[in-house]
Each structure stands twice: as structure tokens, then as C-alpha cells.
Amino acid sequence: MSKRRKWIKEEEGYLISIAKELTSNAQLHFWASSFWHLQRSEECRNKFYKYRHVQLYINFLLVVIGSFLQIPFFQSWSGYLGIVIAAAGGLSALIQAIISLHQYYENWKRNRMTLENLKSLARMYLSGCEPFDLPDETANEKLFLSELDSILKSEVNKWEQMRQSKYEEKSSLSNNEKSEG
Asked: Which partner from 32, 64, 116, 168 sits 20 to 30 angstroms from 149, CA to CA?
């Protein structure tokens, strides 16, 4: 088992241990949201690194093939090598566009940050830190659930704002094309 896979299993085990200490209503709510953010952050991280590694290898090959053009033996192949360099450069630009379009790095950071906020909130609740130091346990649980919901709602609002800005950007581009046409 790889170190990363082992770490994910440990993280899942940690989340389960936190969830087991919570009451049933809070347990379900915390477990579902934290596990989803863990899976989503790992998915985005893996895709980001996969594309970034492929891009790194392509860029390395561009430098190596470009340096072959300086060797007299390979100068007769300059036409073929030029085509390979152009194709590899285009592929590298395409990979960068995919990374930027899907925002894998930003999504990885955002989901990981939300997961860490959820874990921190659960630790505060379980240890009875302020604001969860009320004498009534049901009031503490309600406060925990409302804080949990506020973290998740803020995450949803961020996604909505991002989608809205993309929609407005798209509509402004289409309006510009109509006015030019």
C-alpha cells in the first residue's frame, strides 16, 4: 500500500473515531460532510498531480529534443523534430488549459480547508471548548449542528458565487460576439 493510500486510510479512521464520539444526529451529519470533502479533495489532488507530472515530462522532452537539433547528426531530421516539438508544445499547453479550466488545485485547497474546518469544529465540540461549554448537552449539540451547517453553507455560497461569475463571464462574451456580429 502506498504512503498516500495509507494516509487516506488513517484520515478516514480518524474521521470515524471523531464521528463515533458524537451523538447520532451530529454523527451522521459530520461523517457525511467530512468524508465527502476528504474524497473530493483527494480526487482533485490526484488529478492535479497526474496532469502536472505529464506536463513536466512533456516539457522535459521538449528541451531534450530541442537540444538534439544542435547536434550535426540530427540536423537532417530537423523537419521531423520540429513537428514533434510543435505537437509536444501544443499538448503541454492543452494540459495547462485543462488544469486551469477544471481548477483542480483550487478545488483541492478549498475542499481540504473545509475538511480541516469541520475537524477543528468537531474537536472543539468534543473537548467542550468555547462556545460548546454550555451546561445543557442538547444546546451544545444544536450549536454544533448550526456551526456545522454554517461551514457547509459558506462552502455552498462560494461555489454558487464561482458558478455565477462563470455564467456572467460567459453571457458577457456571448453578448460581445452578438454586438460584433
From this structure: 168
